[in-house]
Amino acid sequence: MRIKNLNLKNFRNYTEESINFSDGLNIIYGRNAQGKTNLAEAVYYLCTGTSPRAKRDKQLIRRGEEYAEISAETEGRYGKLELYARICETGREIRINGNKISRNADILGNLFSVFFSPRELRLIQDGPDERRRFLNVFISQLSRPYYIALVRYNRVLEQRNNLLKDKNPDTAYDLLPVWDEELCKYAAAVACRRAEYISRLAPRASEIHARLTDGSEELKISPEKKYAGSEEEIKNKLYSELRNNYERDLRLGFTASGPHRDDISIEINGEDAKMYASQGQTRTAALSLKLAEVEIFKEVSGEYPVLVLDDVLSELDLPRRKKLMGCTSGLQTVLTCTHAERVLGGLDANRIKIEGGKVKP
Asked: Is 223:198 a contact under the CB 8 Å cutoff?
């Protein structure tokens, strides 16, 4: 998969701009606060229907304007696709080849993308929420059934939690079994898909990490074994766990069991990465996970995704920087940095200079 061009209107600090991409390495460079990250964000938005850094779509609209537009022409093994998004204060409109898309599930899978920025270090440094977010975005692009099950699980979970906050425990005891049946069905689908993709992700991330560190460090990724087995086994186990803990959940006011509480373990040389990894080790581990994603996209879909690397090189030493660039060979990469020559060396690349939200020749 690759993106041929990107058109922006009233997006972040861009008034109106068009950018052409090559099939290989595209280096977006310029001084800080010129709009390089905004351009990377626009690519990711068309791939997933979400921003990697804005909580609300209206934050993407240029100040003083009523709407923003992003469009792109893409190409993959199934031919060309035209992607379009119009974002307003009151909502948005997404079109694929001119056809209006009403569900976010229909956006996923048209153009695969793997995104890395310094914010992705939270995957290692922060709590379980960040690691679940990583898995959810990753798997949802590859599996529409997973995304649908996840959305439905979260809706039922919200209803169950509202019931647990009810001041009348008799009502809760009467209605909880009804919600539990639905919750466990979707929970089992989510847990099974996560286990499947972690089993693919772990060995590839470990292999890439060894390559980036010349074998001096060992990265180990492992899931919690709380919900293992077939979908039916997971469903029955969770249902029993929920039924046996009504009193606890009512006391807490929320559901304390289920895949919304899952985590994955990340270790470097046998030590918990969150607790003991240096900044350089954290960055390398996070990069390894993202590059492992790239390989799994290729295995599952038959095509490489668009790799978006936002300000990823500034904290890497020269050997790791060279190894990282070697990992991008053969796939379309959009890379932002402040100085193109520090990245290029002898590499063939499409250089795009950004200054004040404009492409400079």
From this structure: yes
Strand locations in 147-284, DSSP E? 219-223, 264-268, 271-272
Domain boundaries 126-302, CATH class? mainly alpha
Instruction: Say if residues 353 and 360 touch (Cβ distance below 8 Å).
Output: yes
pLDDT of 316 reads 78
The CATH classification number of 1-112+303-361 equals 3.40.50.300
Provide the 10 A C-beta neighbour count for residue 244: 10
Q: Per DSSP, what are the bridge partners of residue 115?
A: 308
* Nearest alpha-carbon partner for 158 in 181, 183, 177: 183
pTM, full prediction: 0.90
pLDDT tens-digit readout, 273-297: 999 999 889 999 999 999 999 999 9
Q: What residues does CATH 3.40.50.300 cover in the chain?
A: 1-112+303-361
Nearest to 50 by CA among 140, 120, 156, 145: 140
- Give the 3-state secondary structure of residue 359: strand
DSSP string, 273-297: HHHH--HHHHHHHHHHHHHHHHHHH
